Every structure is written in C-alpha cells, then in structure tokens.
Amino acid sequence: MDQRKKEKADYLVQSVDRALDILESFDYQTGELGVTELAQKLHLPKNNIFRLLATLEVRGYIEQDKKSANYRLGMKPFEVANVFLHHLGFRRQARPIIEELVNQCDETAYLAILEGSEVIYVLVQDTTQMVRVASFPGRRLPVYCTAAGKAQLAYESADRLDSILQHQPMRKLTENTITDPQVFREHLREVARLGFAVDNEEYESGVRCIAAPVRDYSRKVVASIGLSSPASRSSLERIEQELGPLVKTAAIKLSERLGYEATTGPVD
Fold first, then answer.
1. Which CATH code is given to the segment(s) 3-73?
2. In this structure, which long-range contacts are made by residues 54-63, counting pairs with CB atoms below 8 Å and at least 24 apart in sequence?
3. Where in the chain is the domain with CATH 3.30.450.40?
4. pTM of the predicted model, to two decimals?
C-alpha cells in the first residue's frame, strides 16, 4: 500500500470495504458463489453477507441465480467499467475504425473483450442492410463458439486456456459447434496461424462471424474486432478473400493506436 493510501486507511467505511470484498471475490475462475462460500472466504457471519448481498443486488452489482440460489456479478460493474473504458479512450479510439470497417463491407462490426468464459460486446456498429445480425453493447456470448472469443483465446497461455475450458461446458449449439477440447485446441492453433477466427455457424445457424485480435502496447491481446453477417452474404470464399483481411487490418490499426508496434518481431 502506498503512503497516500496508508494515510487514508483510518477513514475506511467498514460496510463499504466489505461490500467491495464481495465484488472482488468473483474472478475469471469463480463465476458464482453462495452465501456460505462467501462467509467462509471473507470470514464474516452469514447474516452480514446476506445483508451486503441484498444491498448490492438492489443496486444491480450482484444478481442471484433463481435455480442455484448462488450469486454472480450483475450488469452494473460492466456499466461502470464501460464508463472507465470510455474515458480511457479505448472505445473512442476504436469507433472510427469500426465505422470505417462497416463502410468497407456494409456488415455489422463490433469490438469485444474477454471476461472469463464469455466475450462482451463493448461497441457495435450496424450495417445499413435490411437483413442483419442483431447485436448490442453489453451482449455476452460463449468464447468457444464465437469468432470474437476464439480470436482472443488463440493467444492465451495453455494454463489459462485449460482453466477457461474447465469452467465452460462446450455444448453443441449447432451442427458445426466444436465440443471436443483437443480438436478445439488444434482449431485455435489454426486461428493463430491465420491471424483471424471464423465462427462458421457454430453459435447460431445461418450466421457467420469473423474476428481478429487487438493488442496493446505490451503486445498483450486485449480485445477483438469482428464482423457478423448472415451466412448467405458471407461465403467462406468472401471471408478468405475480403472480410478476413479487412478485419485483420482493422485490428492492427486499433492495436497501433493502443501503442502496439507490428514491426517488433513475432508475437506470442
């Protein structure tokens, strides 16, 4: 703790401090927790935990699963993080690139980040075409069957990937969904080789998506830029010859705005 924080430690409000402890108990590996688990983890009486959870739930920071009765993060933390991203300039930097991408191919474009075993759309620009793939900021999708997720998973460490797959049931959503972990790992190696990922009607029949990784100044993959369109407009030939290269170029442009230098040698 730095000196400034030490000086303010005496002014801590205990209930706020404990509420933040609850929020910080959820991480990439732990999506849901019960009252008993939280009480044991934080060394607090269950009654105290319940009252704190009730407050957080009313404010939208926590939500309860009706079936399991466990608790998970609500949408409010995402909304707060979204404000942070906005002021940080991430979305502001991405917006003109996303708009340019839509102008180039007239398909719905998006910026997505990875959170645990899901990807979250943080920016969406619709196509002008009447038939489109509906999406919106804040939408959450599984990582294993989406281009946005695979474009980021392909660059995760083996340990991190194993952890995500252990906590993400790979359910068969369509005839094309990859559910075998070993086949999926091989597929991700191909994604890394190509530099972009394709959701070939794996999440939803009749829809294809393409996405490429976005890197920051430290060369770490921090997001993905992608396109979604009806399969009738995004043949595999069009993806290979037009959409894939467009998405890769857009992702590199945003990466460079975030300080990434594409000429510094091979990436991890």
1. 1.10.10.10
2. 55/19, 56/19, 56/22, 56/23, 61/23, 62/22, 62/23
3. 78-257
4. 0.66
